[in-house]
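Issue 218. Parser rejects a valid record. Input:
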Amino acid sequence: MTPLHPFAAVAAGTMLGLAALTAPNTIPTQGLPDAGQACQQNCAGTVAALPPIGQTVPPDSVHRVTMPGRYGLAGPPDGQEFAIIAGHLVRIDAADRRVLSVLRPVPRLLD
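Output the parser choked on:
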């Protein structure tokens, strides 16, 4: 038995990669509940209103994220933290807990 040519493996890998990139989206979207609506009832934390960007939040309403990798995040930028506020993953200023950005709803606490 003769070994495959080195370029044969490259060609096969390229074909598989192209097949994955051009595959149709097969996830059904009809009839699925809106993630935002479902999260209002089932998200981590309270269902209180999310504070607007730029507002400082009280310390008792903030769950600081200690393991950002569990939420699919890298470490926060210097002087900032990730937190859960009103069932949403947010980025806050570490010094004064001012909301810098709202990332997404979270279904439950992971850390």
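Fixed in the parser; the record now loads. DSSP finds two helices and four strands in the chain.
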